Each structure stands twice: as structure tokens, then as C-alpha cells.
Amino acid sequence: MADVLVYVDHMDGAVRKPTLELLTLARRIGHPVAVHLGPGGADAAKILAEYGAVRVLTSDAAEFSDYSVVPKVDALQAAYDAVSPAAVLVPSSAEGKEIAGRLAVRIGSGIITDAVDLENGDDGPIATQSVFAAAFTTKSRVSKGTPVITVKPNSAAPEVAPAAGTVEELAVSFSEAATGTKVTVRTSRGSSGRPELTEAAIVVSGGRGVNGAENFVVIEALADSLGAAVGASRAAVDAGWYPHANQVGQTGKSVSPQLYIAAGISGAIQHRAGMQTSKTIVAINKDEEAPIFELVDYGVIGDLFDVVPALTGEVETRKS
Amino acid sequence: MKYVPDATGDRHFAKDLTTDRDAVDGLLSELDEYAVEQALQIAEGRLQEGADAEVTVVTVGPEDARDAIRKALSMGADEGVHVEDDGIHGSDAMGTSLILAKAIEKTGYDLVVTGMASTDGTMGVLPAMLAERLGLPQVTCLSAIDVADGKVTGRRDGDAASEELEATLPALVSVTDQSGEVRYPSFKGIMAAKKKPVTSLDLDDLGIEADEVGLDGAWTEVEDAAPRPARTRGTIVKDEGEGAKQLAGFLADQKFI
Question: Which PANTHER family does the UniProt entry name for this protein (chain A) (predicted)?
């Protein structure tokens, strides 16, 4: 089997879950070689090795934090040149997709975005995608060059598979384009203590029915009782009740959790595009005719201000 | 100075597993409306300063992609460029980005503004691929943008941090739906749009060989496309005081609690 490059998404060495999923998928088609850029490489290597990385290529340079996107493309290309992989896997974050897109142009390879599954085929990896607001499932492969594939969070359950995880310093020459876009200020987003929306196994979302920013505590309480992330419909975000970073839908995040609970969300196509690949869908809505009920595995017609707090209470009771 | 947003529209698969656009009216993709809006605001700002500014809209697609151009012209863009050619059919992200890059180069620009993602297929990669092909700084996924003194600055909201970015023109920008409200075309704008020029280009005009784009030039192949089975509606209960308990029972059965 050949090597497969896996781009590591991390916060100062804390490896994010989608990367572990990628390592699991990479093992289906080859030997995972992780590429870790920025600080914390040594710490990251331990968990990367635990989940199957046979090698970890590291590089830490000021360019990665001082400039936007391109220095990371330069580094990933250096890794590509050094390893000659059978494929390059990148998490489907906004930045991940940009890195993947530029890399594909540089190395002259096809790119597949937002894959939700990966398998080995006779002519290389075959990627599964959900497209057209999840109305279609496609299987695609790259027919020219080395496959560059971005993979959505929650596409695979990370599997522990201890490997050597040998750490090697990656030599990177930054291109002239690397300093094109300067990061003049960076403000970290405070952590809510909840799971990342796109990575969460359970998501609880509130919509127009929540009827005010102050009422989102009802949604948050249910999410916290379930260890879930909090989402919001576009209507709620546009009304200023919840941050855009939590928006689920066509112009927000696309989520595919094990369980999606929609409270006070009508289920417009715009929203459904972002959540209808969830494994189990539950909706709570006063309107019996709400389109969201067409998608549900379980629905409750009722006032969310009665049902959601009561459900939170039930969950807490059953936990103890 | 010209600002060049791109637009796209689509849906369905045709027999050769490419996107079948025949059955769908072209429309200005919602995310690209924000790009047009921001391009117009930047141009208006320039005009108010007494500088020259012009907004050109570029799109690639079949005949009805012109509807997208007309919409942008109605909003206030100055002219349109439409790349149309049978040979484009079946192009993937590599092919589409090549066509767009050539069209943009031919049109000329100081700033390229794109939506942050297409809502049809190449989610989120096209702006970066264009920047790579054009050799431009990318200032992307912006929720706020400003152009002054030969520089573009903007705010990029990521999962982990918010970043203020800065690049010297010429540059490529993509904007999100958080970048500002999109105006509605006025009646006057709709009437004016009818007189605005729309240039048609084909692959020959762009110096692109047939085998570089389209199905033959595609770098990816769709091997199978199947409609996802519609989700069958599950159990729905009316809450008469017991709804939460019933739902909790369902979640327990599913082992979520």
C-alpha cells in the first residue's frame, strides 16, 4: 500500500476530531502520513500515531500564523513532493477546502470536495458525496493526477490503530505568494465548552419559534443535558438571537450528527440542506404542517417552551 | 477599475452524470448576490471619491446563465461577460476555475469578488483555485470588506478565530452572507439593465483547448449518481403534557440517553 497524506487540523497541537476521522479513512486506502503545521507538533504526534499515522511531518514557522492560507499550501505541497502519496486528504473546513483547492491546481490533480465516505477502488480511491441539498448520493474518483479529497466531519468513527508516528521535520520553502495576505489581527473565539457544531454527535437547534435571544437558554439547557452542540436556523441568526457561527443551513454550517433536534424550526429547504443527512432527526414544532415533520424520525407537535424544558428534565432524571 | 464577481446556477444530473442545467432556470446564486452587492458598494465608494470604477459580472454556463447576469445588471453592475460553449459541458472544479480565470484575465480587473461558495457543486474551493491560477492574494470568506489606498482589508470569521486580513491590490476576495444586506433591483435598474452590454465568449476566445475542459478534460469522474431515498416520516405525536416523556422514551430506545 502507498502513503496517504492527511492534513492535520489542530489548535496549538490539540488535534481536532475530523483529523482522526481522516486517519481512519486514510487507512482504507494506504498508510497515513500526517502533516502538522504550526506549534505543538510533538504533542500532536502522540495522538496522531495512536490513530494510525505511520509518520508525522512537522513544520513550525511564523508564516503560518502571520499570513492567510498560502503558507499552508506551500507546506502541504512540500509534503506532497517529499512523500509522493497515492492521495491527499484534507478536512472540509473553509480553510481546508481552500488549501486543497490551491494544492490541486498546483500539482495538476483533480479535487473532490465534501466527501462523506471513502473506499478503495480498482483505479484509486472512490469518494461518496451527498449533493443537491442531499437529494443525491454520488460516487466519484479522480481520473487525472493524485486525488485531493476533502472530507466532511462525522464521515467516519475514528478508530484507534497504533502506529509508529515517527516525527520528521518537513523542509518548506515559502513561495512569493505566501506573504500576499497578512493577518493583522487575530481574535480567538472563546470556547463555549460545547462540542464543535460540525463535529458534534448530537446537535440541538433553535429557530424562529424560540422567539428571542434570551429564550435560547431553553435550547442551550437541552443541549447541555445531552452533551450536544447548539445550532440555530437562519431566521434566528438573522434576527440576531444567536451567532452566525452556529447557523445550520445552506449559508451556514452543514452538519451530519447522529442526532439532530430541531426546535421551533419550520424546515425550509435552506435549513434542510444543512442537516438532512443527520442519522436521526427529531423535531418539536407547534405547526403540524411544518415541512420539518416530513424529515423526522420522531416529531412532537407542541409548544417548544413546554416540551423542551420538560425533555431536559426527563434527560436529567434518566441520567441519575 | 473593474470588479468581477462570478455567478452560477443549476440542479439535477443528466444521463452522462454531469449536471443537467436544461431543466432549471439559471439564477444568480444567493451567495453570489452578496459578492455583487459588495462589488457595487466598493465601486460606489470609489465613484464618490471622484475616482473611476466599473463593475463587470462574469459567468460561465448555458444560455439561461444570462438570467444571472441580467439580475446583477439590474442591481447596478455596468456590464456582463458570459462564457458559453458546448465544450464546457461536464467541467469540474479544475475546468471551471480555468475557464473563469481566463475570462477574468481577458476582462481585466483590479479586484475580483466572488461568493464564498457555489451552491451547486464546488463548495468553497473555487475562490482559492482562481486566486492560485491568477496569482493573486486571496482575501476570502469575508464578513466585512473595505478597499482603500490600494489595499483590501476584511474580516474572516473562522471556527477558531476572527482574523483581520490585508492585501495589496490586485487581489481576489470572497464574501459570505454576513457581509451585508443585498439590495433589490429598482424598476429604474431593471430598465437600465436592458441596455447594458453583455459580451459572449467561447473557448476559442479564451484560448482554451476543447480537451482541457468539459467531460473529456474533467479531472474527476462521477461513477454513480443515485437519488437518496426520501426519508420516510417517522412517529409524530401531539403534546398533551406527555410529549416530552414520549420523546425521551424514543431517545432512550435509540440509546441517546
Answer: ELECTRON TRANSFER FLAVOPROTEIN ALPHA (PTHR43153), ELECTRON TRANSFER FLAVOPROTEIN SUBUNIT ALPHA, MITOCHONDRIAL (PTHR43153:SF1)
How many domains does chain A contain in total?
Answer: 2
Binding residue per annotation — A267?
yes
Q: What is the domain partition of chain B in residue ranges?
A: 3-217
Is the separation of the CB atoms in A157 and A23 below 8 Å? no
The CATH code of the domain that includes A226 is 3.40.50.1220
All 3 cell numbers of residue A266?
Answer: 419550520
Mind listing the pLDDT tens digit for each residue in A133-162?
677 899 999 999 999 999 999 999 999 999
φ and ψ at B10, to 5 degrees? 175, -170
Expressed as residue numbers, the domain containing A97 is 3-169
- Domain containing A114 — which CATH number? 3.40.50.620
Closest A-chain CA to B142 = A94
CATH number for the segment(s) B3-217: 3.40.50.620
CB atoms within 10 A of CB B87: 21
Q: What is the pLDDT of residues A161-220, one digit of tens each?
A: 999 999 999 999 999 999 999 999 999 888 888 999 999 999 999 999 999 999 999 999
Nearest by CB: B94 against A11, A104, A186 = A104
Question: Which residues are within 8 A (CB) of A186 and not within 5 positions of it... i.e. 6 or more apart?
Answer: A65, B161, B162, B163, B164
Report the complex ipTM.
0.89
pLDDT at B15: 46
Check A282 against B251: CB less than 8 A apart. Answer: yes
How buried is residue B169: exposed, middle or buried, by Cβ count under 10 Å (0-12/13-18/19+)? middle
> Do residue A153 and residue A239 come from a single domain?
no
A299: left (phi over 0), alpha (psi -120 to 50) or beta: beta
Angle at A135 between CA B13 and CA A229, to 5 degrees: 140
Q: Which residues contact A125 (CB under 8 A, 6 or more apart)?
A: A29, A86, A87, A118, A119, A141, A142, A147, A149
Decide if A152 touches B, using CB distance below 8 A: no
Low-confidence ranges of chain B (pLDDT < 50): 1, 8-16, 19-26, 119-122
Same domain, A154 and A36: yes
B13 touches A: beta carbon within 8 Å: yes
String of DSSP letters for B97-109: HHHHHHHHHHH--
- Residue type for B15, please? K
